């Protein structure tokens, strides 16, 4: 432990700008008081020791010389006074983020100003506190005071409810912690006039979900379940009669958890278990009705209703409390895009429908994969206990999955834009030119009759995985898979046929899949809502139905193109009537020397 702060080290490492005045003192009454005498923004005062440090409600805060961080900084307040209540909360989030960067600790936040750490015993103990004081003047600012226990041992702490970094196995100089906190403060100040980080605070706040008592000097104590932090940063308590009251100030005591952990609810109370799982996934409890969402988002009630329906969710009654702050933010973002002229309302509803459908399928698919992984050795059978196990694993996976989904979405948008630009033609046309392929597992229906559900699941998963890998490897796109069929496209004829050949070889080499037949056609298709339509798609589908096991049948344009490519054999069948399509000149194609079975008429 360094008993004296290294002033030169701090001045060197503290980011400047924005911080333009870093003062390191030995002993002071209060670092907040020092800045109060000259509260110009972006000043910092740190001290080795405070003799009259204080927290909220004028509580005294003492620590041995050189054992703690006593830090104060001045920053501009948000322009909107309605955001001022969030400032101390976001300062707490800033400290939590800084400690997460530097340590392994599980840091939580107690509304409104305590920094907690979860100890090895699983209990939350106080690591530090925050005191924010507004300054007057033409441009109001805030003095942010932060106290953090670093080197104290048990005997040096004021109570059993307190702890320090060193007690929790963290041995760090105070200087890098101060620098990390100031770095995070500078970043958070940029956005604390917005609600961008409000949900991050709600997720980190251990008060939400607890049965608490709020005490103030001028009112009777209030007890209830802490269900939310509202848009003004107030703690919302729900009383036993269902009434909800926001509290802007008060001393909070966590009486007990409002609801036991999800793991303690299963399998007895399924509804409460599912509610808790939802709350963990959404990082926010249900606190709002439809009218609340409309009011907070600044729109009439019809738009959120239509948006909710387009996303694929069941309509809620007006009196149902089923929404939360994240729903408000989602509606608000769509409203902003419409208001800025980026999209119109009809397009907003269409985008919501696209997102809803694709993410619904992704969620079901991902959950099924997690379930298959966990239950493969037990025959994929799901009972209440196993379902709960899968649900809790999915919650753990979800936080890691969301950034991946955002990244892949951006990449797919970039790829879609690239394809659109490449498809653009000098003259306007409806649709784009694509080579379309249908691949169909042979005798699938017959095989299903004699398969167990476990074997059927393995077969479908194997086919989807193999088809996706083959199509992606060749630079194509899977449009959809439906059990025993896969619909794929490629921008070129040769690329589409290569996919067909590779699929044929891969399936025949797989002992579980064994047989497949494929139809390929080329021409203009209409792409809508993630699917493709038109005569080209119909031709490919009918060619697949006509093909024998192990065959690739193609239309005339594909055959003509493949005749010009070395290493490909083309067998012409001549005109053939395809149901619902009409007469098509059908050919079979194969890699040279690999075609072993074709229709009789193809030999002429």
Write the layout of secondary structure elements.
Layout: H1 7-13, E1 21-28, H2 31-36, E2 43-50, E3 53-54, E4 60-61, E5 68-76, H3 87-102, E6 107-110, E7 114-118, E8 124-135, E9 141-149, H4 174-189, H5 198-204, E10 210-216, E11 219-229, E12 235-238, E13 244-247, E14 251-257, H6 262-265, H7 270-282, H8 290-297, H9 302-310, H10 325-339, H11 345-375, H12 384-423, E15 432-441, H13 444-449, H14 453-473, E16 477-482, E17 485-490, H15 493-508, E18 516-528, E19 531-533, H16 535-546, E20 552-554, H17 556-562, E21 568-578, E22 582-591
Parallel strand pairs: 1-2, 18-20
Antiparallel strand pairs: 2-5, 3-4, 5-9, 6-7, 7-8, 8-9, 10-11, 10-14, 11-12, 12-13, 15-17, 15-18, 16-17, 18-19, 20-22, 21-22
Helix pairs in contact: 3-4, 3-5, 7-12, 8-10, 9-11, 11-12, 14-15
């Amino acid at each position: 432990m360094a008993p004296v702060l290294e002033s030169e080290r701090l001045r060197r490492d503290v980011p400047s700008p924005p911080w333009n005045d870093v003062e390191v003192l030995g002993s002071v009454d209060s670092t907040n008081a020092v800045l109060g005498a000259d509260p110009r923004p972006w000043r910092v005062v740190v001290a080795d020791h405070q003799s009259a440090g204080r927290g909220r409600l004028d509580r005294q805060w003492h620590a041995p010389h050189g054992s703690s961080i006593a830090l104060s900084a001045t920053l501009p307040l948000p322009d909107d006074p309605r955001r001022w209540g969030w400032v101390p909360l976001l300062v707490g989030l800033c400290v939590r983020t800084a400690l997460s960067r530097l340590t392994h600790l599980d840091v939580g936040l107690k509304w409104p100003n305590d920094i907690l750490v979860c100890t090895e015993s699983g209990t939350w103990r106080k690591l530090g506190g925050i005191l924010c004081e507004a300054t007057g003047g033409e441009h109001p600012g805030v003095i942010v005071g932060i106290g953090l226990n670093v080197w104290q041992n048990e005997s040096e702490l004021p109570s059993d409810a307190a702890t320090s970094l060193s007690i929790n196995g963290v041995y760090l100089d105070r200087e890098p912690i101060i620098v990390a906190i100031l770095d995070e403060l500078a970043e958070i100040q940029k956005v604390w006039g917005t609600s961008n980080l409000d949900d991050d605070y709600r997720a980190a706040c251990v008060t939400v979900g607890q049965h608490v008592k709020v005490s103030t000097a001028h009112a009777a104590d209030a007890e209830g379940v802490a269900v939310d932090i509202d848009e003004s940063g107030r703690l919302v308590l729900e009383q036993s009669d269902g009434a909800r009251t926001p509290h802007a100030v008060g001393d909070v005591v966590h009486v007990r958890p409002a609801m036991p952990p999800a793991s303690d609810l299963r399998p007895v109370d399924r509804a409460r278990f599912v509610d808790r799982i939802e709350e963990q996934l959404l990082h926010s409890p249900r606190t709002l009705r439809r009218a609340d969402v409309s009011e907070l988002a600044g729109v009439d009630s019809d738009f959120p209703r239509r948006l909710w329906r387009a996303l694929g969710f069941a309509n809620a009654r007006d009196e149902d409390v089923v929404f939360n702050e994240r729903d408000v933010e989602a509606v608000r973002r769509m409203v902003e895009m419409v208001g800025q002229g980026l999209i119109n309302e009809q397009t907003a509803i269409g985008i919501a429908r696209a997102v809803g459908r694709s993410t619904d399928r992704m969620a079901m698919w991902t959950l099924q994969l997690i379930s298959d992984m966990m239950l493969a050795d037990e025959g994929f059978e799901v009972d209440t206990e196993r379902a709960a196990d899968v649900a809790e694993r999915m919650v753990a996976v979800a936080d890691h999955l969301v950034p991946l989904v955002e990244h892949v979405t951006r990449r797919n948008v970039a790829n879609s834009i690239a394809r659109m630009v490449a498809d653009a033609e000098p003259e306007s046309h409806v649709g784009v030119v694509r080579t379309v392929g249908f691949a169909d597992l042979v005798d699938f229906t017959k095989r299903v009759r004699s398969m167990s559900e476990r074997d059927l699941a393995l077969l479908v998963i194997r086919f989807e995985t193999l088809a996706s890998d083959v199509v992606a490897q060749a630079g194509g796109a899977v449009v959809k898979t439906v059990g025993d069929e896969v619909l794929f496209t490629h921008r070129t004829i040769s690329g589409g046929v290569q996919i067909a050949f590779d699929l044929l070889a891969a399936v025949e080499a797989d002992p579980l899949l064994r047989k497949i037949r494929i139809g390929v056609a080329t021409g203009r298709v209409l792409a809508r809502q993630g699917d493709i339509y038109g005569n080209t798609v119909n031709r490919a589908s009918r060619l697949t139905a006509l093909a024998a096991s192990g065959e690739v049948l193609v239309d005339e344009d594909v055959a003509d193109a493949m005749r010009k490519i070395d290493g490909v054999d083309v067998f012409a069948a001549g005109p053939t009537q395809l149901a619902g399509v009409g007469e098509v000149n059908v050919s079979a194609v194969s890699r040279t020397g690999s075609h072993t079975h074709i229709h009789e008429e193809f030999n002429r």
